[in-house]
Specification:
The protein has about 350 residues and is an alpha+beta fold. It has helices at about 30-45, 120-135, 160-175, 185-195, 205-210, 320-330, 340-345, and strands at about 1-15, 20, 20-25, 55-65, 70, 80, 105-115, 140, 145-155, 180, 220, 235-240, 245-255, 280-290, 305-310, 310-315, 335. Helix 4 (about 185-195) crosses helix 5.
Length: about 350
C-alpha cells in the first residue's frame, strides 16, 4: 500500500534562487529540509495518532518569477538587490554594503512520501489535512514565506487499479507543472563522449561536461558545393542551435564533507551547538524538467536523503537500492564537487 501527502500549488514569496553555482530555482536540499521540518512538527503534535514519517518529496514547478532585471538591452541579467539594513541618517557617511541574494517568487506543488500507510477515518483525514495546511502556512520553504496553498490531500492506494486512480488525482492537483527528474547518468555519458578528445594527462573533464548542459551552443553546417566532399576556408555554412534531449538543467543535489566530524561545541557559531558538526561543499549534477503527464510511477520521482561516509546526497532511488546507487556515483563521478574540479584545472 502506498500513501502520499499532496500540497497543491503552494505560493512562495522571496524564496532562495541561488543554489550552489546555479540560480533560478531552489536546491533540492531546501525542499527536503522543509519535508524534514514538517515531519518533526507533525511528530511532536500527533506522534501517537499518526505513527509515520515523511521520508521523501517530489518537486513540481508550476510557476517561477526570478527577481532580476537587465541594466542594458544586451547585458546579462542581474538580481534586484536592496541594502540591508536600510540606509539611515547615521549611515550617510558609511553606506552599508550589499550582500548579493537571489530571490524568486514561485508556485510549487509537493508530493510527500509516507514511510508507512495510515488507516484513518474520513474525519481524521480531514482533520490531518487542515492541520498540515495550518502548519505549512506558518513555515518557510526554501527561505520564502508561504502565501497560499490551493489544497492539501492525503491519497492512498493498495491495488494497481487504485494506484492508477491515485496517479491521475495527483496529476490533476499538480498540473500545469513540470516535475524535476534526476538525470545524473546523462552527465556520465557526456563525460564519456568528450573524454576521447581530451589528453589523458589532463583531469577527466567533468566540469566542462557539466557546463555544457547550461550553455547555449551553435553548430555550423557547411554548405558543400557540387563534387565537394570536405569543407574549406571558402565554404559557406549555416548556424543552428545545438539541440539536446529534454529540458536539461544543472542542479545542486547535496554535499560532500571536506573535514572530519567535530564534537558538539567544538566549532563556534554553529546553528545547534549540541550536535556534532562538519564542513562540506556543494555537490552538483544534472536534472530534467518533465511535464506531469509523463509521470507514470510516483515513487520514481521522489527525492530522498542518503548519507554514506562523506556523501550527503538527495537521490531519486528507492530505499532498497541506495547502496547500489552510491557505488555508481563513486565509480563514474556523475555527481561531483565543483570546487575540486576547478582546482584540478590549474
Amino acid at each position: 500500500m502506498s500513501q502520499y501527502l499532496v500540497l497543491s500549488c503552494v505560493k512562495i514569496q522571496n524564496a532562495n534562487s541561488i543554489a550552489g553555482f546555479t540560480w533560478g530555482f531552489p536546491a533540492i536540499t531546501q525542499f527536503l529540509g522543509f519535508t524534514h521540518a514538517l515531519n518533526r512538527k507533525l511528530s511532536d503534535s500527533y506522534g501517537g495518532d499518526y505513527p509515520c514519517e515523511l521520508t521523501g518529496c517530489m518537486v513540481i514547478a508550476n510557476k517561477a518569477d526570478n527577481k532580476v532585471y537587465k541594466p542594458k538591452g544586451f547585458a546579462d541579467v542581474e538580481f534586484l538587490q536592496s541594502k540591508n539594513p536600510p540606509v539611515l541618517a547615521k549611515h550617510k557617511s558609511n553606506t552599508p554594503p550589499i550582500i548579493e541574494e537571489g530571490k524568486v517568487n514561485l508556485t510549487v506543488s509537493l508530493v510527500l512520501e509516507l514511510d508507512k500507510p495510515l488507516s484513518l477515518t474520513l474525519d481524521k483525514i480531514n482533520k490531518l489535512e487542515h492541520y498540515i495546511e495550518s502548519l505549512c502556512r506558518s513555515m518557510r520553504i526554501a527561505g520564502g514565506s508561504v502565501l497560499d496553498i490551493a489544497k492539501v490531500k492525503l491519497l492512498s492506494a493498495s491495488t494497481e487499479e487504485q494506484d492508477n486512480v491515485m496517479l491521475k488525482k495527483i496529476q490533476r492537483l499538480c498540473m500545469p507543472g513540470f516535475v524535476l527528474k534526476d538525470q545524473s547518468d546523462y552527465l556520465a555519458q557526456r563525460v564519456e563522449s568528450i573524454f576521447t578528445s581530451v589528453s589523458e594527462e589532463r583531469p577527466q573533464p567533468i566540469l566542462s561536461a557539466w557546463l555544457d548542459f547550461s550553455a547555449l551552443k551553435s553548430v555550423a553546417e557547411p554548405k558543400l558545393k557540387e563534387q565537394q566532399t570536405e569543407p574549406d576556408e571558402q565554404t559557406d555554412a549555416s548556424w543552428d542551435y545545438e539541440k539536446r534531449k529534454g529540458y536539461l538543467v544543472p542542479i545542486m543535489v547535496g554535499y560532500k564533507a571536506i573535514s572530519d566530524i567535530y564534537d558538539a561545541g567544538q566549532v563556534e557559531c554553529t546553528r545547534d551547538p549540541n550536535i556534532p558538526s562538519r564542513f562540506v561543499e556543494a555537490i552538483h549534477s544534472i536534472g530534467e524538467w518533465l511535464s506531469m503527464h509523463r509521470v507514470h510511477r510516483i515513487e520514481e520521482f521522489i527525492w530522498r536523503y542518503y548519507q554514506h561516509d562523506e556523501w550527503y546526497l538527495c537521490q531519486q532511488t528507492s530505499r532498497k537500492t541506495d547502496e547500489e546507487s552510491l557505488s555508481v556515483i563513486e565509480s563514474n563521478q556523475s555527481q561531483f564537487d565543483i570546487d575540486e574540479e576547478i582546482i584540478n584545472l590549474f
